[in-house]
Every structure is written in C-alpha cells, then in structure tokens.
Amino acid sequence: MSFSRRGSDLRRTIALSALVALAASYVLFAGGCDRNNAQVVREEDESHFVRGKEELKKGNFMEALAAFTKVTEKRRDAPESHLDLGLIYLNNIKDPIEAIHHFRKYLELKPDNKSEQSRRVRQCIDTAQKQFLASAPGNPYDISSETIEMENTMRKIREENLKLKQELAAANAKIESLENSRIKIRETVETRAGASGSSLTIRETVATTSETTASSYTVQVGDTLSSISRKAYGNPSKWKEIYNANRDKLSTPQSLKPGQTLVIPR
User: In this protein, which residues make up the domain named LysM (predicted)?
Assistant: First the structure.
C-alpha cells in the first residue's frame, strides 16, 4: 500500500511539473518575451519618419527627403516612406525617374491592387512617366517602345550604381580629409616662411596646393540637382552646394538644360 501511494505521488508530481512548464511556455510566447527578438517598431513610429513628416509640414522638402531616405535605408518594410519620397521627387524636385522607383517600391510592399491608395499611386506613376516623356527630346507624347526601354535602362543603371555611389562618397570624404591636411601644412609652412622672410618657400608651398578642388559634370536628359548630387556625393541633399556654385548659369534649381556643364564643388 505504501509503495502504491509513493507511485501515485510521483505521477502527480510529474504531471504538475509538466503543467507548470507548459504554462510558463505559454506566458513567454504570448507575452513576446523571447530575448532573441527585439520589439518591432512601426514605421510610423521611427524617429526619422516622424521628423520627415514634420519637415514636410514646414515645407522643408530636402530635409524631409533626407529623413525618409534614412528610414528606407534602415528597414526594408518602409512603404509609407517610399510613398512620401515618390511624392517629393515628383512634385517638388521634378525627378520622375526617382519618383517612379519609390512608387513601385510602395506597390511591392503593399500589393493590394484593389485599394484606393494603390490606385492613386498608379496614377502618380502615370503622371511621372508623362513628366519624364515631356522632358525627353522629340514628341513628348510619342510613347514608343524605345522611350519606355530607355526609362527602364536608366532605372537599372541607377540601381546598379548604388554601390559605386557609396564608394564615391567614401572616396570624396577621404579626399576632403587629405585636402584639409594639406591646407594645414601649407598654413604652417607659410607661417614659418613669414617668420624667416623666405618668400620663395611661400610661393612653392602655394604652388603645391593650387590644385583644383572642383570637378565638372555635363547635364543629361532627366537630370535634376538632386540626382546629380546623388551621383557626385552619394547624397541627394547636397544639391544646394551645386546650385550655389553655378548661380551664374542657373536662375532657379529647376532651370537645368541637357548639355550644360556644371561645377561640382569638392
């Protein structure tokens, strides 16, 4: 009788232990307490997304563009940021190719083709395509297969060059650092030369640092200051530097003409 009671107590203990383990697993699963999974932050709660919306309300489109771009670089699921980027490129920067890219990314991330928002985005793509065709040579409404193929080719080239632009931006930063170091050396030599009265040393130092710190760029069909800035610096928000360096040629940021040669500050 004693042995039977002990066996019964053992079975009861095992059953209770299993129930406790099951309950603990359920609590951890339901509460999302997995230490290996960070809490998911909604796109609308991202700090850069919030700042982008605030800059849009203020009319600071380039600042908003930079903020939304950071969201898309940080996370893959950023349809709303792609939508805002598309609208900025379409309505404010007048860069239809970039606009089409971001509108298509929105539709990829939100593939509900029957929603009202998706319908509006497709209308924006149509508007951007017409804007692009209007800026192309020839009949702006002659939507030929060659014109569409040119648009697709440009989009593919842009995507393929993203890595090269990042490398270019890193190279530009290194060049700027070297230039700053050279300027400091020149100032040091000039100071010492002035103290010793050696004007020859000053002239030689100035000659060694008289290399140009700017390059040129020929405007292509469909270019905007923003897209040129992205090509030159890997960052579209530096378009103001290009505009200020070419005020003698550009009356407004939108007055680019294919074939123009612009100075690209370094």
Answer: 215-264
